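Lab meeting, item 3. Inverse folding demo.
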């Protein structure tokens, strides 16, 4: 099973096993990772699963769609090139070891 590493704080790193086809958001919610709520259930209508993708993983993950980028721009205060919605990152074997940082303090 692929693993996703959630950097909750400098002292709290959570490694979660995720099923292929699951999203970064659903794996976090299922595993109780703090900072990712997924209020809309992955329907691309909130930003409560905002994460920053580590530089070294951005090429593997790819960038946001236009709709996702618009929602991030409107829905979070610290939108950056690293920003993605966890509900829009689908886990594949190639994403094993993906490192993301939940950004709950950035929600509007």
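The presenter then showed the designed sequence:
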């Amino acid at each position: 099973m692929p693993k996703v590493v959630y950097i909750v704080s400098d002292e709290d790193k959570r490694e979660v096993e995720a099923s292929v086809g699951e999203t970064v958001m659903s794996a976090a919610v299922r595993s109780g990772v703090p900072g990712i709520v997924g209020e809309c259930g992955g329907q691309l209508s909130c930003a409560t699963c905002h994460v920053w993708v580590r530089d070294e993983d951005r090429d593997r993950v790819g960038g946001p769609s236009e709709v996702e980028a618009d929602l991030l721009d409107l829905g979070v205060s610290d939108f950056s090139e690293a920003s993605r919605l966890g509900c829009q990152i689908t886990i594949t074997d190639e994403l094993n070891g993906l490192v993301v940082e939940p950004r709950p303090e950035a929600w509007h």
